[in-house]
Amino acid sequence: MSKKIFIITGEESGDKIASLVINKLQEKYYLNQYLAVGGKNIQFQKISCIFDIKEIAFIGLIDVLKNLSAINKKINFTVKKILEFNPDVIFSVDAPDFSFRVLKKVKKNNKNIKTLHLVAPQVWAWRENRKKFLHQYIDHLLLLFHFEKKYFDGFIKNSFVGHPFLDSSVFKLSKPKTVVKKYITLCPGTRISEIKMFMPIFIELIKKINLNYNFIFHIPMTLGNSDIVKNYFQISQLDNYLITNNEVDKNFYIQNSLLSISKSGTITLDICKNQCPLIVIYKTSWLNYFLIKPFINTKFGNILNIIANEEIIPELIQEKCNTFEIYKKATQFINNERLGDDLVVKYTKILEKVIVPNSLDKICDYLME
To answer: At residue 183, what are phi and psi to the nearest 5 degrees?
Structure first.
């Protein structure tokens, strides 16, 4: 039986997840009709998007407040397009600040449209009370990690499906390389606001590392933002770098990196998949940090650390996210490769616990159900 499916994403990781699901859906149920809020990955699947997710890619409370009028217009426009399309089901992936507002408005206008949401809001980390209201506009919540289930049982219909990136058919741990590791991978994120936050820190870090070591710095970046990153290097007159824009090249250079330094996010799973030592960093404006800090209930930012309840992967957050602290931590790995090997062994043990079979099949079956 074919269905009309409207897909909502709000950031690149959700766009990637949705594209994997669409690809699997088209294998299993090829007569479906689609319309979406999406990015390059969904568009690559030849799905029509009512607008690109770049138009709603805002980070932090302050950034959102500054653009509230534009965001509200996009929410209302999305609701209008959904009601016109009249789908059997809305499949929303992450981006709760956008997607939940859309779902609420759709449900007020048409309760017959089913809603399926993947990536549970992180109520275990902050604002736990949100779980009490999700049933009002989400018919079925799909969970990435099994530990989340205890937070939602009794409040909303939910099912553990596993992370599509960790589906055993998709997620393959690379074999450690024995070549000389002459690269260091730096991941500032793909949003312009992230690039502006982290690239100045990375440029100063590269200058410090260049004084004592000889590395080429690899930066995975979306094609559209590559020129912004190149501009930082041109201004600083640094030339020992390379930028990759596709998955094959990105994975190759991560596998051949002595170390990766990445902003917190889904990219860290790619790094772990490629068995590269990792330092996680994160920083936001002090006003954003001041506003959200009282509501955060978890000690860690990286999901593998949260699952392990231990800082296995080093984290440098907020005031520690500076050139001096990152350089100090990075040189420990540069000077002692055994330290990186041990880290990979430790986080791989956690990864192996969360790699699941048939995650994509389960999501597809719930969508068609």
So the answer is: -115, 155
Nearest 5°: phi and psi at 96? -60, -35
pTM of the model: 0.80
What domains can you pick out in the chain, each with its CATH number? 4-167+357-368 (3.40.50.2000), 183-354 (3.40.50.2000)
List residues bridging with 184 in a β-sheet: 217, 259
**CB 164, CB 30: distance < 8 Å:** no
pLDDT digits (tens, 9 = 90+) for 51-102: 999 888 766 555 666 667 788 899 999 999 999 999 999 999 998 889 999 9
DSSP assignments along 193-218, one per residue: HHHHHHHHHHHHHHHHHHHH---EEE
CB 121 within 8 A of CB 96: yes
3-state secondary structure of 20: helix
13: part of which helix (H) or strand (E)? Answer: helix 12-28
Distance, CA of 276 to CA of 255 (rounded, Å): 6
What is the DSSP track for 261-275? EEESSTHHHHHHHTT
